[in-house]
Design a protein that fits this description.
Chain lengths: 83, 410
């Protein structure tokens, strides 16, 4: 499953959003995802992908597509968490 | 000084998630106390409590619920009821003149407990990202304010077991002074987590579990009382400037006329006859009432050996010989001790007693204590008693004594 699909699963389950709304161009503010919700989403992303986000602040992300790109970059760069 | 009308009541407590059910159960002498279903219950000396039958998931969407500790869930539910009961439409109110005062002793205890469990027991660093926001003590007041856009004072009081009586009294003062038109005032507490219970257990003030019937474990004013039983819940009142309530044709449950506040400065837990009596006298003075004009007292009545004897002595000091003819009850025998929410719940119960002319009983007073020799409305509710003025006592660890008086609305 690709990153977009995984994020869609998380957001549909948690935020009463439909898959149809969750297109890459969708703006996070329009989806009701404010800065706090983004922090929580990143926490869920860490759990879901088994990665630890870098200590740097999350960059400004405007659309769902931006989040996908950011997570994909991390997946390339950050080693998976060792259990 | 403006008069203060009580125009709305809301409650989510053991024995009822609405005012009517609560009053019915209190009148019937039912107990909301029982054995707690916790995985660690066997590690507690006193594994009992008074739970609220209320599931936040039935009311809040998951994304909001994850930001709310149980204390805020209960507070939001009870305050919504109070607003609906008052028939308030905030869109036509000046919201900068509407505020919130909440009393809570422990704030978001479940969130704190869960966080520590994650950190120390599971040795994980994965603390939920909203832990700080859910656990902070002013979260219930903030959520209520945000929910309704109330831009006036938003205050949280934490004076242990008198927190919400203080919140109500201080909210009333803001109305009396003309600073606010409407104040949502009350309290919320959700202390039934293992960590909190263990702490109270260690203090040796919790009731010994009745081996035959755990629901009878809290026995205020009885010679065989062994301690208090913790409960969770929330109770809220809409306090309103009298003229404002009249102008919009609001129903008035009662007038909040008296508030007395004193502090014992001798000991962190030991109650003081003088401090409690002074608080009752101060409340009478602000209400401009004589002691013989009070018709019912909802006692602090925790069921600890020390509290009940001291409170009885304080009542005698204030009311003199009339104390023996003054009905006093501790409804904690049925709903447990809601700590920071206790004062609001019990003031609400006293107002309901006045509205319904029914005195709620003190249950489980099995053995007469010579030190506790007043009329405690033992074992059975007393209907058909006309009440013109009622008092509610709240006394706290730390020494803050708060007493509220309500009078029949005229």
């Amino acid at each position: 499953m690709n990153t977009l699909e995984i994020l869609r699963d998380l957001l549909v389950k948690d935020r009463s959003l439909t898959r149809e709304q969750l297109i890459p161009e969708a703006e996070l503010t329009t989806l009701g995802i404010d800065s706090l919700a983004l922090i929580e989403l990143m926490f869920q992303v860490e759990d879901q992908f088994g990665i630890v986000l870098p200590d740097d602040k999350v960059p400004v992300l405007k659309t769902l597509g931006d989040v996908v790109t950011y997570v994909d970059q991390l997946l390339m760069a950050v080693p998976a968490k060792q259990d | 000084m403006h008069r203060v009308a009580v125009t709305g009541l809301g409650v989510v407590a053991p024995l009822g998630d609405n005012v009517e059910t609560l009053c019915e159960n209190l009148s019937a002498g039912r107990s909301g106390i029982g054995l707690l279903e916790l995985p660690e219950a066997q590690r507690l000396r006193s594994p009992i409590g008074a739970r609220v039958n209320f599931d936040g998931a039935s009311r809040f969407p998951p994304a909001q619920l994850r930001m709310l500790d149980r204390v805020s869930v209960l507070a939001l539910a009870a305050s919504d009821q109070a607003i609906a009961d008052a028939g308030l439409d905030f869109t036509v109110e000046r919201r900068d003149r509407c505020g919130v005062c909440v009393g809570t002793s422990l704030g978001g205890a479940t969130t704190t407990d869960t966080g520590y469990q994650t950190a120390y027991a599971q040795r994980s660093d994965r603390i939920q990202p909203f832990s700080v926001l859910a656990a902070m003590s002013n979260a219930p007041a903030s959520w209520i304010g945000m929910q309704h856009g109330l831009a006036g004072p938003n205050l949280t009081y934490s004076t242990a077991c008198s927190s919400s009586a203080v919140a109500i009294g201080e909210a009333a003062r803001r109305i009396q002074s003309g600073e606010a038109d409407i104040m949502l005032a009350g309290g919320a507490e959700a202390p039934l987590t293992f960590g909190v219970l263990l702490g109270w257990d260690a203090l040796r003030v919790l009731a010994v579990v009745d081996p035959v019937d755990p629901s009878r474990s809290c026995r205020p004013f009885s010679a065989n009382r062994t301690g208090l039983v913790l409960g969770e819940g929330a109770a809220f009142l809409v306090l309103e400037q009298w003229e404002h309530a009249e102008a919009r044709g609001a129903p008035v449950h009662a007038e909040l006329s008296g508030y007395g506040l004193t502090t014992d400065v001798a000991h962190i837990t030991r109650p003081s006859v003088q401090g409690q009596a002074a608080a009752m006298r101060a409340a009478l003075q602000t209400a401009a009432l004589e002691p013989n004009q009070i018709d019912y007292v909802n006692a602090h009545g925790t069921g600890t050996p020390q509290n009940d004897a001291v409170e009885t002595a304080a009542l005698k000091e204030v009311f003199g010989p009339r104390a023996y003819a003054l009905p006093v009850s501790s409804t904690k025998s049925m709903h447990g001790h809601l700590l920071g929410a206790a004062g609001a719940l019990e003031f609400l119960i006293a107002i309901c007693a006045m509205e319904r002319s029914v005195l709620p009983p003190t249950m489980h007073r099995d053995v007469i204590d010579p030190e506790c020799d007043l009329d405690y409305v033992t074992d059975k509710a007393r209907p058909g008693v006309a009440l013109a003025a009622v008092m509610s006592n709240s006394f706290a660890f730390g020494g803050t004594n708060a007493v509220l008086i309500a009078q029949r609305a005229n």
